[in-house]
Design brief:
Blueprint lengths: L12 H28 L2 H20 L32 E3 L16 E8 L12 E9 L5 E9 L2
Antiparallel strand pairs: 1-2, 2-3, 3-4
Amino acid sequence: MTFLKLNAQGMTLVEMVIAIAVAGIAIAGLAAAFSSIVTRTADPMIQTQAQVAAESLMEEILLKPFADPDSGNVCTDVEAARQDKDDVCDFHNYTSSGVEDQTGTATSGLENYTVSVTVTFSDFGGITIADADALLVTVAVTSPLGADVVLSAYRTNY
């Protein structure tokens, strides 16, 4: 029976220290990359929440009558409370720290968003500002990250 004789040699201490140093640098680089990825995973959700809040408020506003149902006037008497807003112009200069529903109740988890609305007379196609039959509604929602979602839409007196 013959045994193979291998010419095996071990690693020196210097080679072992260099291997550990190279592995440490590689692991530190990977940890930094993963840390960056982990901190940004919530960004799309926060941006989507701001978008949904802006779209929801815009839809609520555009579904309101053009003129005040009580007086028939356009943009003359503005109700202050959210649940009392009964026409498009009532939302002019509406601001909120946190997202609220139609009754003015704060939506939990969205307290760090800010919401603002402007409603102005605007030219739209053949409708001029002098006609006072077109309103430009702009809803802006700022997320806790400072990103703004701004939606604009026209509401006409049809």
